[in-house]
Design brief:
A: 307 residues, mainly alpha, MetI-like fold, two-stranded antiparallel ribbon, 72% helix, B: 296 residues, 75% helix
Chain lengths: 307, 296
């Protein structure tokens, strides 16, 4: 009885499997084959022999990569920028979310929310135009209008690496705070208003209500968002580090991150060995970090764990 | 009745939010004003919110020599349309079966989708696969297929939506009435899934409209440039020439590149559709982002 019903039961689902087939095929091509393709980091790629037919190089590519100063610089930059981004944009996003949720004027609330989200919807190429309008050394708004007003000398922004940590943190916050504040805003909406009303009746000031009630109640969301961001700390927004500094060579010491290094290695230098080694380094360490951060989330808030 | 403290808090909050909004809008204002400025004024005084002399020459130039720009615009529109429709098809056709709790192998398949969010091969293998084995270099497929056609994140969100908001009984009764799976999908799931499908459509559309990455990697022929890639090229060419200005004839070449205002005008034309559509869609965007917010 059972053995007869099982194939029939499966047969019923054939249309559903067929429905999924194109999407699954896409995932295999776009995501899974490249994962196996990571082995080229251990190869000495020779297009004449074909990629899979190329000779094995062992750890040669990695030896070269870690023998250079670059490996250290790109790792440092990737980590420090992400840490700075997480601090700055999380702090600002929470501020905006709390303020928005306490505003009583409904219409202006909506206007503020959509205006601050706007930068998130713009491409990094356009953002690099916007930044260039401010920073361009001969026609930029800062050098022509702002710095002379303050009695300061013009700055050659695109050749001075020391300025870029601050610039990139500002651009990242400008682009992402509106988006993140929506996530924190929906967390604040989950806070029961009755707690706040009670506290107000007891004479708590607004700041006390925010610090003592709202923040503790949304802290699980903050923790999770930060941990998820830490899980992605080995990756960067490629456009932010490539487009916004306009791929300017003199800035590499403070703008080169793992993602841009891999890109330049492959597309500009044609050094497949080095760039695939850096790519595997990023994928592997990145994966371990996601697993660790998820493990922590699962300990703290089981239902918010990714898996 | 509002207390004094409450009134002060509201006023200060408005001031902060107006400041934040201004910070978000001002760069766009500078871009738009620059595109309406006389080119020589910009060369002499730099970009300014209050230019000495306004001018429409940038837009006049765009209209006169619009062939390449129109072409790039057409490519962007085509890629966005085809890509968004393809993305919606692949996303819904994967999310719906995964939402069916009775589907054998559902857990394993869901994990297969989910795992792509945790681990990926990165640029080098992806690039080599697409160019040497699939031959997408310098083709429309190179702009549409890599990376953007399916996003595991939205598959998971949509699957949850179908699971929570389409009652099992609806599907079961349709099955008893003899409806095929395809018919259930088209006539029940798609109509009932409208809100989430609209959200995915919006985000996929924006991703395609804004994409310059695929263009930069897979396209080198200028007749396939999208508007974003055209903008990208113009800025990097000028940067390149300025940093190598000792090069013979560079100054001459710079003078032939469309002026600063023209670049600004193209950038304005590039974000115009977003700025026009956004006020009507802003609620959907906000809701779409809030869906993904982790449960509080």
């Amino acid at each position: 009885m059972r053995s007869r019903s099982k194939p029939r039961k499966l047969k019923r689902f054939i249309p559903l499997y067929l429905m999924m087939a194109p999407s699954l095929l896409y995932l295999v091509i776009n995501n899974y084959l490249p994962m196996f393709g990571l082995v080229i980091a251990f190869k000495n790629v020779n297009f004449k022999k074909g990629i899979l037919g190329s000779d094995w190089a062992g750890l040669e590519n990695f030896k070269y990569l870690f023998a250079t100063q670059d490996a250290w610089v790109i790792t440092r930059n990737t980590l420090l920028y992400n840490i700075a981004f997480i601090f700055v944009h999380t702090f600002l996003a929470i501020c905006l979310a709390v303020i928005l949720s306490e505003l009583t004027a409904k219409r202006s609330k909506r206007i503020y929310q959509s205006v601050t989200l706007l930068p998130y919807l713009i491409s990094m190429v356009i953002i690099s135009y916007l930044v260039n309008a401010f920073l361009s050394s001969d026609t930029g708004f800062l050098n022509n209008s702002v710095l002379p007003l303050l009695g300061m000398e013009p700055v050659s922004w695109y050749t001075d690496p020391g300025k870029w940590p601050a610039i990139l943190v500002i651009v990242d916050a400008w682009k992402n705070v509106g988006y993140l504040s929506i996530i924190y805003y929906s967390a604040v909406l989950g806070v029961d208003r009755e707690y706040l009303e009670c506290a107000a009746l007891e004479g708590a000031t607004k700041m006390q209500q925010i610090r003592k009630i709202i923040l503790p109640l949304i802290s699980p969301v903050i923790t999770i968002m930060v941990l998820l961001a830490i899980g992605k700390i080995f990756y960067s927004d490629f456009g932010l580090f490539y487009q916004v500094p306009m791929d300017s060579g003199p800035l590499y010491s403070t703008t080169n991150v793992i993602s841009t290094y891999v890109y330049r290695g492959l597309m500009q230098l044609g050094d497949i060995g080095m760039s695939s080694a850096a790519g595997l380094y990023q994928s592997a360490v990145g994966f371990v970090l996601v697993l660790i951060s998820n493990l922590i989330v699962r300990k703290l808030e089981p239902e918010n764990a990714l898996f | 009745m509002k207390t004094r403290e409450e009134r002060v808090f509201q006023a200060v909050s408005h001031v902060i939010m107006i400041f934040a909004s201004a910070v978000c809008v001002i760069p766009f204002l500078l871009l738009i004003i620059s595109s309406f400025t006389d080119n020589n004024t910009i060369v002499a005084n730099g970009y300014s919110f209050f230019p000495e002399k306004w001018g429409l020459e940038a837009y006049r130039y765009l209209l006169q020599r619009s062939d390449q720009i129109l072409r790039a615009y057409g490519i962007t529109v085509l890629v966005t349309a085809v890509g968004t429709v393809g993305n919606l098809l692949l996303t819904t056709m994967l999310a719906y079966p995964l939402s069916r709790t009775d589907l054998p192998g559902r857990k394993a398949l869901s994990f297969l989708v989910f795992f792509t969010m945790l681990f990926n091969g990165g640029l080098v293998p992806t690039y080599l696969l697409y160019t040497t084995y699939l031959g997408v270099k310098n083709s429309l497929a190179g702009l549409i297929v890599p990376l953007l056609l399916l996003n595991a994140y939205w598959v998971m969100i949509m699957r949850t939506f179908f699971q929570n908001s389409i009652p099992k009984a609806v599907i079961e009764s349709a099955q008893i009435d003899g409806a095929s799976e395809m018919r259930i999908f088209c006539q029940i799931i798609l109509p009932m899934g409208k809100p989430i499908i609209a959200t995915v459509c919006l985000f996929a559309g924006i991703a395609y409209w804004n994409d310059w990455y695929n263009g930069m990697i897979y396209v080198t022929e200028s007749n396939l440039f999208s508007i974003q890639q055209l903008l990208n090229r113009m800025l990097s060419d000028i940067q390149f020439l300025q940093s190598n200005s000792s090069m013979a004839g560079a100054a001459d070449y710079i003078s032939k590149i469309p002026g600063t205002t023209v670049r600004m005008a193209i950038a304005v034309v590039g974000i115009l559709p977003i700025l026009v559509v956004y006020p009507f869609m802003q609620n959907n965007f906000v809701k779409g982002i809030a869906i993904g917010a982790v449960k509080g």
